[in-house]
Amino acid sequence: MDCSLDGIYRAVLRGLQVGLGSALIFAFLKTVVTLPGLEKVSPLAVFSTGILLGIAFSFYRDCLKVSLSGKSVLITGCDSGFGYELALRLERMGAVVFAGCVKSQEGGAKELKELNLKRLHIIQMDVTSDEQVAAAVQYVSRHIPPQGLWAVVNNAGLNAFGYVEWVPIDVCKKVMDVNVWGAVRVIRAFLPLLRDTRGRIVNLSSALSRFSLPNRSTYGITKYGIQALSDCLRFEMKRWGISVSIIEPGSLVSGLFTEDSVKKQAADLWNQIPEQVQKVYTKEFYDDVIGDMLKHSTVSDIPRTPVVDAYMLALVHRFPHPRYQPMELRMKIMVWVHTHLPEWVFEKIFT
């Protein structure tokens, strides 16, 4: 049973929907049907019962899972972070894992190779390269197990920060090329194999695809793009039984920023800002923005487990959800406020 904050939120929301629907149907029936004792039934009791049944059904549905033993999964971005951890988790569960790495002979890829796990294949795979993606398809096709390719996990990603006037266009293009066009490239390449298994696609998005914040436009644009890509693809793939899910982490960052990387990126960024723009913003304001990035993005010992758990649920749920949100409570509230309340409320509280 999924007892994470996301799982509980989803179950309660389903319960409220069922409860409200039951109460409305009951109210309508009382006006058109005359049954003995019907008038004694309280609408509140119908509403409450509907809530409980909806919650129970949601938890039951999420308990129905498929086995990954003997199935194969392709993951991009396994050099570190979520992809690295997910590859190990899946291999331990008996899945054949094709771990795509940008540098297959260095760093995390080298560590994975040295583990000598028989079901773990390390593949050289830069998602921005047509040639490397095509070569990955050929490798997977040659080594695929009898049960075929069950899932493609688009985990590879780049992060960037900076106000719209600060970030050079070539940096924006690079982040877009990895986060969006890289996912499109991988999906298009592996869809023929997924059709054979009626498998699934899991794409990494972010809470920053549900709301926007200052200083994060370069990254946020790409994650809104992943939302659009995933929603369109989910509709298009229904005819083949391929499910598409999105993972939306909150501020849980996994090696995307370190103190040194933020400082280096900040120094490089300032030097690329046009002089007239520097004068408008001032170095003092710029340093305050960078200090805020250091404060919120370099928290040590942030667990990767909630995000990897969400990946796993998207892969094993018999009825996968369109979205999984491994967010802490504050981020969950921000998403809810931005989605359901007037925009000025979100801006007043969170910006």
Automatic annotation (TrEMBL):
Q: Name one GO molecular function term.
A: oxidoreductase activity
What family is it from? Belongs to the short-chain dehydrogenases/reductases (SDR) family.
Q: Provide the GO biological process annotations.
A: steroid metabolic process
UniProt-listed InterPro entries: NAD(P)-bd_dom_sf, Sc_DH/Rdtase_CS, SDR_fam
Source organism per entry reads Cryptotermes secundus
Alphabetized UniProt keyword annotations: Membrane, Oxidoreductase, Transmembrane, Transmembrane helix
Name by which UniProt lists this protein: D-beta-hydroxybutyrate dehydrogenase, mitochondrial
Gene3D superfamilies (UniProt xref): NAD(P)-binding Rossmann-like Domain
What highest taxon heads this organism's lineage?
A: Eukaryota
Phylogenetic placement of the source organism:
Eukaryota, Metazoa, Ecdysozoa, Arthropoda, Hexapoda
